[in-house]
Amino acid sequence: MDDFSLSRLPEPRVYSNEYEAPEFDEIRHGFLLDDQHFLLTTGTFSELAPKGRICPLPDSPVWFAGFINHRGNTVPVYDLPYLVHQERTDLRAQYWILLLGQQSHTAGFLLSEFPVAIIDPKRLNENLALSAAPKVLQPFLTAQYSAQGATWYEFDHQELLKKLKQSFYQPATLFTED
């Protein structure tokens, strides 16, 4: 970086003691999808991959975007917005690839909005109110939380991936009752 770009960075906040620092018990990560808020399960390793070339796989289901090369590893990428509203993500527009899990279990999900950090989410009652959540994702929502003025659904991406892998060669059976 040159001096000009460094001068544009904000000065870091320095706290004189631990009592001045903001207090919080938990930081979780989440994302928005069609005006719904989704929270990653506790302990989920996540990172954003740079927007790059996604290599499609011929004759694959439309919800499978393809593969990316992430630090020399091949990572599958799924079009999460497509699962919700049956419209492919425009890869010419702004998007992010949210990587979940560590190698060799990493999978990427396309997102049209930047993920967010959630501070101290409060778990809501045990009865999940799923009526507002996208129907296709409801089986993979495990809890509800309140944070930052919104209700967040805890999203179990591992269970979704199991279902997607089972239906990869049988796309017509995706999300049918067993």
Automatic annotation (TrEMBL):
It comes from the Bacteria. The lineage of its organism: Bacteria, Pseudomonadati, Pseudomonadota, Gammaproteobacteria, Oceanospirillales. This is Twitching motility protein PilI. SUPFAM superfamilies: CheW-like (SSF50341). Residues 25-166 form the CheW-like domain. GO terms for biological process: chemotaxis; signal transduction.
